[in-house]
Amino acid sequence: MADKKASFFTYKGVPLVRKENTIYFGNMYDEFVCMIEILGTEKQGKLEVANNVRIRKMATDPTIPPKDMIVKTAEKKSLYEAMDIACAWLKV
Q: pTM of this prediction?
């Protein structure tokens, strides 16, 4: 049986992993990743669309104390705006 390599969904070539209402954007081997939390949604037609999103730029170094890992925080009104900020923070 052939060994399958795990692949992630990407946005602008950067890994994007979602678990429930939390999205991690970035490569864990890089210095920083962005954690995006969907805090609220609204119904638009048949879709649930994020209308309140928190973004955190976090260090990936495991030797840093957890309270010091978050270096930037912002809140936006759409997932698109949040992804735009995350790309700028990670310089994608």
A: 0.85
